Amino acid sequence: MLLWSSRGRTAALVVFAVVVLVVFIAPLATVVAAGLAGSWTGALPSDLGLARFGTALSGQDLASLSVSLQTAFVAGAVALILGTWAALAAGDAPGWLRRLTDAVFHLPIAVPSVAIGLGLLIAFNERPLLLGGTRWIVILAHTVLVLAFAFSAVSAALERLDPAYRRAAESLGASPVRVLTRVTLPLLLPALGAAAGLAVALSMGELGATVMVYPATWKTLPVTIFGLTDRGQVFQAAAGTTVLLAVTLLALIALGRIRGRAVLR
Hints:
The chain is mainly α. The protein has eleven helices and two strands, in the order αααααββαααααα. It has two domains: 1-49, no CATH class; 52-264, MetI-like fold (Orthogonal Bundle), CATH 1.10.3720.10.
């Protein structure tokens, strides 16, 4: 609804600010404060320090962070390649096939992630595709879960792409491969960067399917944080969560810079 009066716009902005503060900023600030706290027995934390972050950046926690980063970037890259290929292929397909492809690629986000994890664990726990107990089943689970978002981002960008560029290249005698590599993909670079960032961010925080499939040798940071919380080490879990947030933000900034350069091109 449009708000024409200044009083109405001010009220709407105040309500929006309160919602953002309560729903987004306050929970994150509480997590950071809990990670810094030595104890929290009153309204505010006390004995603030960085000791818990030292623990979060060493030993098993650091190994879990490394696993999360490796999983996120590998799964994100695979999802981006498959999602881009599917979006390009569906773009020239009949309408019924496009709708079917869209439904298939969005199916993993329409069901609980735990169901995806259990399904992969059962499906790939026997030869000839024995992935259970290896890092690859974790990477596969993350790829399946973020594939829909990569596909959606590229599909939306393709729909907004002006077909005149492709037609001009084709009229000049460019082959389909040359049109794809020199026209379509360069125009899609901003969308590809956004899809990569979204895939990495979602993978970094994924827990439901990971808990079902991860082996002891490939434990992501969210799984480690869940274990700390389950053992009652809430403050240490908060420190690990803060590290996870910071690293994810840095990864998104790096990918955003790449996307920004693509936009300038």
